[in-house]
Specification:
By secondary structure, the protein is mainly beta. It is about 10% helix and about 50% strand. A hairpin with a 2-residue loop joins β6 and β7. α1 runs antiparallel to α2. The chain is globular.
């Protein structure tokens, strides 16, 4: 009996972890880790916090249910309607009784939901301490990470631009969270940054937040994030984009005001924010914080930096040298047919912020106003947002999700962000990462279940950039597509085949017969073909094998190829142990044919490893929970390059052909 219980626990734990990791890998599909704005910690925390603190589907509001990946307004309302009109859910599996929820949807929801215990506090008075401590717990995180090889920045004198601190990256977090209260302190020292004891962290973030207290939906004092509408006006951090989940990711689900606990140092607000109301909700927010920016003169800087690094004398001279103030609000009304909202903000800087592009924001003040909607229309959901920036620039996105018959789902969306639309705090859907600007495009996504075992998915996205972008001197455009076949042979065996390609205009330099250099325009193409096989050998062992090939041709250059093969093993020897390990072999012609692999990592750490040239990579991750209140992680990874004797460049350069990293983490739960 004990053995059976142990196996059941291990299977449930592995299933939940695998589903969350699949969702995170989907989110990473369209992101390049070499993008300076690449950071996914906020998205990681949202999903992993949701998995650690599942929503009670017998109490969750429509807005809360929309936080679950893959859940749209129709499904959220179907859940609420069933529990209100029929009866409360007695088990998670009973969700399939709600209209529109099938087995596939249920399995995707499962890591993030619960039916509750039935013993939770009901209408307790706010003055009763039990109300504030219901479902509560205190946790402490401590994390150490380090590259084990010597890097050039640590051997260079401070006066020559070397790193001022040690190569250790250290993170700690203290958080109390209950059904209605969140108190948090996050602190971090990046590798290379100086550290002066417990009060000497380069980054400190804190908040006190009240959540789900009747009509006072949210109240946050300290650090917070904002997620409104379709993200075109206000949206912090990353979100799900183009990837294997072709349906349900284009239509954003507003998360509203959220307390902030991430270690990402740039993408949040500091001050106070609150949401109040029922069908009619009003949100107000105010933020004042110091940011880091490259100085041009005493009264002029570039836009705030994203990386948060303050490791050298030069970086520290620019630390918190730009003050930014943000204030605004949102009004949202819920109707029987959906939601309509309006969002606006104004931001100001104490110095002139300038840009190299004539269309990007320059100045000290700007504002944006937008209107968004999510409307039910029979089997379809219509969604969209339109906005105007202070300079008169316009932008909008509009689309629909619908079912076609019993087994087919369809998404269509059109976006048009003018070249002078300056939504500097937005992050709308598009080909370009970051603020929505200078882009027009049409996205079509289709998913069809051939039967209970085979699903076919595809998307096509065509786009153009009406004005020159960074690295180009003329308008450009392109398109990308993805095709995916997923097969479930049985409960223990699944595989998928995925093809993806992107073709876009790119400039290159050519020399004519007179020796003159001119700029040419040609098509650049990058295509990948991937096959993955997963097999649950027994309740303790899961195997995953992947092979991938990439074909790349830059404008004006020859075709290049890259290859990746890995074998992945998850072993759960006992209910409190899990071991993940992987061996990868890669061979690419250059960095242009680089390949990415999502890796399991320490909790709240997301790894999308970049592999290029020739070599092998090995990592081992161990997770151990000796007692219910203590959890430990350790990860070691090493990459060996066959044709390199120098890795990376600049201050991060390593002499030799090996790079290895060590990470240790402890979580104490009370």
């Amino acid at each position: 009996m004990l053995f059976a219980t142990t196996i059941a626990f291990g299977q449930a734990k592995d299933s939940t972890r695998s589903e969350v990791q699949d969702d995170l890998e989907d989110a990473l599909e369209s992101f390049d880790p070499n993008d300076p704005n690449f950071d996914t910690e906020q998205l990681t925390q949202i999903l992993q916090d949701l998995a650690s603190n599942p929503l009670n589907i017998n109490r969750a509001t429509t807005d809360n249910l929309l936080l679950i990946p893959g859940i749209n307004l129709q499904l959220a309302r179907s859940i609420v309607r069933y529990r209100d009109d029929v009866k409360p859910f007695e088990s998670v599996n009973e969700l399939m009784e709600a209209r529109g929820i099938g087995q596939a949807t249920l399995e995707r929801m499962r890591p993030y939901i619960t039916v509750g215990t039935g013993l939770e506090l009901g209408k307790a008075l706010y003055t009763d301490y039990r109300y504030w401590t219901s479902g509560g717990g205190f946790e402490v995180f401590s994390r150490y990470q380090q590259t084990l090889q010597d890097q050039a920045g640590y051997n260079r004198p401070d006066s020559s631009g070397g790193y001022l601190g040690s190569p250790v990256q250290y993170y700690q977090r203290f958080r109390y969270r209950s059904d209605h209260l969140s108190v948090n302190l996050t602190q971090q020292k990046d590798a290379g940054e100086p550290f002066a004891g417990t009060t000497g962290f380069d980054y400190n973030s804190w908040h006190i937040a009240l959540e789900n207290n009747g009509k006072l939906r949210d109240l946050v004092v300290g650090d917070y994030a904002l997620y409104f509408g379709q993200g075109m006006v206000l949206w912090n951090g990353r979100t799900f984009g183009k990837g294997r989940n072709v349906i349900g990711t284009i239509n954003r689900s507003s998360r509203g005001v959220r307390p902030y606990s991430s270690s990402q140092e740039s993408d949040f607000y500091r001050g106070a924010a609150a949401t109040y109301g029922g069908k009619l909700q009003l949100t107000g927010f105010y933020s004042f914080r110091k940011q880091s920016a490259s100085s041009i003169s005493a009264d002029t800087t570039r836009s705030p930096q994203e990386d948060g690094f303050h490791r050298t004398e030069n970086e520290r001279a620019q630390r918190k040298n730009l003050k930014q103030k943000v204030w605004g609000g949102r009004l949202r009304m819920e109707f029987p047919f959906g939601f309509i909202g309006a969002t606006g903000y104004q931001t100001s800087f104490d110095k002139i912020v300038t840009s190299s592009s004539q269309y990007d924001f320059s100045g000290q003040h700007t504002s944006v106003l937008g209107i968004d909607y999510t409307i039910l229309a029979g089997p379809a959901i219509l969604f969209g947002e339109a906005g105007r920036s202070q300079n008169g620039g316009l932008g909008f996105i509009s689309g629909l999700e619908t079912t076609v018959g019993r087994n087919t789902e369809l998404t269509i969306a059109y976006r048009n962000y003018a070249r002078d639309f300056q939504s500097i705090l937005g992050n709308g859907f598009g080909e370009s990462s970051g603020e929505p600007q200078n882009e027009e495009g049409v996205y079509i996504g289709l998913r069809h279940a051939l039967n209970n075992n085979v699903t076919v998915s595809a998307y096509f996205d065509q786009y153009r950039f009406p004005a020159p972008r960074f690295g180009t001197s003329q308008p450009t455009g392109g398109y990308d597509w993805l095709g995916l076949v997923e097969v479930t042979l049985n409960r223990d065996t699944q595989f998928y085949i995925q093809a993806r390609s992107e073709i876009e205009d790119d400039e290159y330099e050519v020399t004519d017969e007179f020796g003159r250099t001119r700029t040419g325009l040609d098509k650049a193409q990058r295509s990948t073909l991937r096959a993955q096989f997963q097999y649950q050998v027994n309740p303790k062992i899961r195997l995953r094998t992947r092979g991938e090939v990439v074909r790349s041709r830059k404008a004006g250059e020859d075709v290049e190829y890259g290859y990746l093969m890995y074998q992945d093993l998850r072993y759960i020897p006992a209910d409190r142990w899990s071991i993940d390990t992987r061996v990868s072999i890669f061979d690419t012609d250059s960095f242009d044919t680089r390949l990415y692999q999502f890796e399991n990592d320490l909790l709240y750490v997301l790894s999308n490893e970049v592999l290029f040239n020739q070599g092998q990579r090995l990592y081992v991750l161990v997770n151990y929970e000796p007692w219910p209140y203590l959890e430990l992680w350790a990860k070691f990874g090493i990459t060996i390059f066959e044709n390199e004797q120098r890795i990376s460049s600049g201050l991060n350069e390593i002499e030799g052909n090996k790079r290895s990293d060590l990470g240790l983490q402890i979580r104490l739960k009370i």
